[in-house]
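Class prep. Protein, please:
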Amino acid sequence: MRGTVVVMSSPAPQPAADTGGEPTTVTPTPVAAPCADGAGLPASWTSQRARTADAVIVALAGRDAGLRADQRVAVAALSDPGARVLVVQATGWGKSAVYWAATAIRRSEGAGPTLIVSPLLSLMRDQVAAAQRAGLRAATVNSSNIDDWSAIEADLRSGDLDVLLVSPERLANPGFGRRVLDSLRDRLGLLVIDEAHAISDWGHDFRPDYRRVADVLAGVDTSLSVLATTATANARVSADVAAQLGSATLVLRGPLARRSLQLNVIEAMSPIQRYGWVIDHLPTLPGSGIVYVLTVADAGRLVDAITAVHGDQVSVAAYTGQLDAQVRHELEDRLRDNDIKALVATSALGMGYDKPDLGFVVHVGSPPSPVSYYQQVGRAGRAIDHAVVALLPSPADAGIWDHFATATIPDPDQMARVLDHITAADEPSSAIAIEAATGIRRTRVELMLKQLAVDGALDRVEGGWTSTGVPWHHDAEHYAGIIATRKREADIMRAYTRGERCLMALLVESLDDPDAAPCGRCSVCRGTLSDGMTQRPRDDTVRTAAAALRSGAVVLEPRKMWPGGTFGTRGRIPPDQAADPGRVLIHADAPEWIDTLTAARSGDSAAVDEIARAAVSVLSQWRATWSTRPDIVVSLTLTPSPLGPAVAEHLATVGKLARATLEVNTEGSPGRQSSGADEATFWRSALHASPDVAGSCVLLVVDSTSTGWPTTIAAALLRSAGAHAVLPLVIHRPA
């Protein structure tokens, strides 16, 4: 790390500015002569600066609190112009105390406001409240407070605001840049990059917009002091972040093991058994906590299963990124106030959520990286002596890891298609226009646009994206290295789930912690699970949960609009070509069904019969909303499995309905990254002949589809052939 000063910390008891942290001290590299406040501090560290910093810490943590030695080294460095400091310390160590104290000092000496780049709205809310306790006036500009923007920006211009918190995505917004950032560039007193591992594409949750921070650094005065903080950076990520900060970066790195956490790994179970385990153990887990799941669908299903068994005796709620911001805020507050036993959450509840007395974290399924796992379990035990952590792994987790290993890696052919379209366009191009022109799914397009902007090939302007003329190069060697790193991380998680050795040591070794050692507290070191934990749930719990989850079906809302683009037709789907609302029997990797579904697809007759009976139950509940009873069952089979036709035959027999098949040629079907226009175009050519359905109400049984286009096109074909209604029943809709 050329130009980087690395200062390693070692444990020692000190008064803490954040009671949840692991106390550390620091042996600094030689600097200017120390002042009376402590050895190793620069001569510019005056008693007045020390008093200002101490006042902030007392306001934050009480009159007996004080800065730790390495916190004071960081604050002292940042109090002078042009400092570059990277703090890599465990969650709860008190990284935010550093930038509040440094801000207070800089502002008291006439410097401009602090700009904090922060990843999550929940963190911003907590940070605004913390700043107020520290005697600082802070505000945030984000998508949830648009009505406040004008007043906040006015306070910023007038100097009345001490701290502005923004997301990395806000930094990349041209309107924000023109109105706010340009006016701040020469007036900032301190720039803080929180969760700074995210600015490195070697980090575990690389966000392209975070890399725009480098653009801010390039455009500000060199006298600006910069602080980057993270709990989850290994040596390679630390080196990358330090290099991006530039100049001579002071790196303060402490031990990352968390003594308050008791880690446990449970033996592998079936998906529904894992639900049962959570249901059994939730009432006895200490305090309130978080149950992490890997998908949005799992969050809702697990809440339903818990409620089915415990009713209102155990209060839980689902928390995902799809919820409205206000709802998320309310749920965060309920958990913080111990008004709820647990939030069942995706990774949307991760970085930045601060509940010092969080008593437990349970993972139903393993994240792909030990770094991201360490970050999530680090929510617990920050200000209490004991918190329980449990991981419930599954063999299916590996498939998710493989997906994440390559999900953010750019495809050079797709990049070229996007660049060619934007370069040839006469005006800025939107993501919608690029999707229609290239056939690349919009979520993928949006990621690629950010990556191309980070690499300098594109500019985001009002109205869309334009080419800069800078050629884009696919660095295959670099991306291969990233994939290899992620696969090594997956191997560490496999070792963790197998309990090969101390769990805490495995986690902190993945972060290159030189102080890694057996913790003596985890289920591997102790040879047993935490008190009260069992390896398996009760059988009756599993049966009750499965029965409750199988009792309903997901509504399949019909598509309303044609896709345009390569499909050639856009606008609203005419009523005489549209499907009615349908049903999905098995959604995604539904734990109550996944083992039965796997068996049925392999030809197990008992499993096929079980799913067929469930389909009859769905129809019996559904019929209350039918406009008319079906006359004919038409099957559309998109996979080689015999399941779809067998279920269709059973429904026709039980309902005494006519039976027909919609012929389809699936050869060359589009991949998951294809646009809606390309999918719709393919299925229009693949479905070209309808059975005789004139005057009929059709029950359309589709075996498996992850999108709505096969069902939409099939319904239009059947309606054009004379069906007066089409009721789609999808047996399985993968995520």
Residues 430 and 553 are 37 Å apart (CA to CA).
